[in-house]
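Bench notes, bay 3.
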Amino acid sequence: MKFEGAPQFNPEEKSQERLQAQAEVFADKGVKNFSEDQAQVLKYSAELSQIKDLNNLPPDLPEELVALIQKHKDAYINFLRQERKLETSFIEENIKTYKEKFQPVVAELKAKMAQGNFKELPEYLGSGSNGSAFRVEVDGKTYAAKFSRNITQANFEIKPLIRAKDIPHTSQLVSYSFEDGVVVMELLSGTDVTNFTPEEAPEYFDEHIIQLIDTVRELDAKGLVIDPKPSNFMYDPEQGFSVLDYHLKHVGGRYGLPQEIIDLKNGLTARKFEPLDYKAPDYEEKAKEQSIERNKIFLPMMVRFLGILKEKYPDILAEWQRQRDEDKKNPNMGVSDLIDRRYIPQHPDLEPHLKKLEEMGF
């Protein structure tokens, strides 16, 4: 690529994958995170890699790409002066892998998605606030392909996936494409814990609860933090729990490992109950009945869960208690009890568990 004022290096000596990888790195380091410009640099990274001279653009480029180049050309040229310092081998390998292995099946899936309601496709796995996931099969193996609502969100999600490489029971990155707006991951086994009804829910084994705690500790050691929303956990009776969603820790953030571990209670006690009609005349009666049933699940699990923490992870529990005691002293923070008895109905089936929790200090 011939740039004025830049060191002389011949673009023909670089692979297209290397040039595209440099564009992706520039999107991370050279423009503002989560900006429209960042999204466009990522989207057009493949096309940028084919431009031989930024001062002499091909005539058939999209107008928004031309405007993008004109805006960032000088910064991009200065960025490429450091090109020998850029480590792009992972990105280059991903570009090759995606083109050779996943691009054809993703193109076929996107064509199906464009034909109508994609949620009716047999490949559809589910949707969240940031995108939708689909099952794809390549060379006899099944993967999860997630299409994010915007490219910068996909870029944000890839970073923690790279850090979590080889951590068991977590989402594992396989490949991605900003051009297609997709992230391909290993398909984790199990069922979303929010889909278990009280009648169908398995009895979670203690060793699987311990495995879940250890998974969160491994993620924490890599600078990653979980999203404790119950739907971000899957359970398989043989494999145990899997963690679907995690992200980079915020520097100086208050949400750390002790609270993450305590918040695992959300997934451990989640069940799918019948929705109640608050306009129905018997709503209050039904709500009380459901509250009792929920607490028949919640309280025994909390006895087990807190017992495991006391026995195997006393330091984590002590640190959580220390942080909690500090928060209670802050008049600007509202801190409720872990076992908030104000909202637990009186019922003979619940009393033994409440008594046991009180004996445990909760």
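Next record in the batch:
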Amino acid sequence: MESVIVYPYSKLFTPILRQLAYDRKFNIVSVIMPGKWYKDGIDASFVDEGSIIGIEVRNNFEEELNKCSTVIWSSYEYSDKALFQKIVQQIKVAMIKGKNIICQQMLDLEMQQQLIGFSEECGVRFEYQYSEYVNQKYFDHIGRNNVPIITITGIGEDCSKFENQLMVRRLLENNGYDVLLIGSRQGCSFLDIYDFPSFMFSTVYSETDKIMYFRNYVCQLEKEENPDVIIIGVPGGIMPLNDRHNMGFGIICYEVFNAIQSDFNIFNLWCEEYSNEFIKEMENIMKYRFNTPIDCICFSNMRVDNESLDDDKIQYEVLDAEFVNSRLLSLTNLSSYNPLNSQSSLALKEKILSQLIK
């Protein structure tokens, strides 16, 4: 089994780390976070207040490098260019020392080519997880899908949609179902996840073409993989949060639901206190704007920091599972679930199966 370290680690990678730990595809030695503001050796779960993962966080990259054969260069939100350049140099040092690189960090074409060339000089593997290439077959009309589709949508960004995609796939696979997942994030092919296609974010194609191409993309993957069920994670939100934070205006969501018909739609909310009138409004938006109902709600353990709403970047509070449980009790007109709670997750699985298998 390949021994790996993850660098630079942040909450962005935590759902992927949980999945890797569950799959046991790699022997994950440790994860390394930039800086030394945290306790060395703490469990990696501390960043999202979730269940124990069993993988330690370390702060000495060079020392951990000696314990692995591969570095997963994880996607990270850089505060400045200096940190990015420092990490690029550390990745080069890793390759000089004979370590393979699985690159989940999005790079421009020049940097990709530079690092791929450098890896060849070092005689190591550099696996870039993103692809701008779009297969022509996705542009050819091949009909409609025939297997059930579960969609995972959300009120906005950072409301745990990706975490729930992995959780629902795991629950269904444990029940013996063959699941095809088209994730709301890109760069996760090492988790056997199909990327949300890059043409959906391109300015080259018209919105009409994107709808047709996405329908063909889903149908072609169904034809190739022959799954029992398809999960589609929909990037972005359904409407602007305010004038500064538009959450994609719901455009991707509109295109997806014009391309495919959802058989079960999970709607994610930030962990706030909502009235039943607000929930009804969300149901109406999904029904009349996107032509799909909300079948259930999942609460994220993220909450918007209201003081950041006028800033360029929204900040979020991370909440524990018990706090999320308290929010479930306030809703009466829709089934709601807490993915951080194992019993609640199993109840969600039963809800899905009861609706899809009739």
